[in-house]
Design brief:
Elements (H helix, E strand, L loop, with lengths): L6 H6 L10 E3 L7 E5 L5 E5 L2 E2 L20
Antiparallel strand pairs: 1-2, 2-3, 3-4
Length: 71
């Protein structure tokens, strides 16, 4: 299942972490969808079509020692 957001909305969204890169759609499983930061690699879940842009809800990224930064 792909993230279905308006392209203009996706253009203005940014990662809320201090390095705040652009977000791109991708990653996730059939149950979870993510927007991935192009700078730090954090994946932010999209639940019921709503991006959850909270660093505490993100997966991966520089603080996650098991993460490669890719989603």
């Amino acid at each position: 299942m792909a993230v279905a957001l308006e392209p203009t909305l996706l253009e203005i969204l940014a990662c809320p972490a201090p390095d705040h890169g652009a977000l791109r759609a991708g990653g996730g499983t059939a149950q979870d969808e993510y927007l991935t930061c192009t700078s730090c690699g954090r994946g932010y879940p999209v639940r019921d079509g709503i991006p959850v842009l909270l660093v505490d809800e993100a997966v991966g990224g520089p603080e996650d020692p098991g993460s490669t930064g890719e989603r």
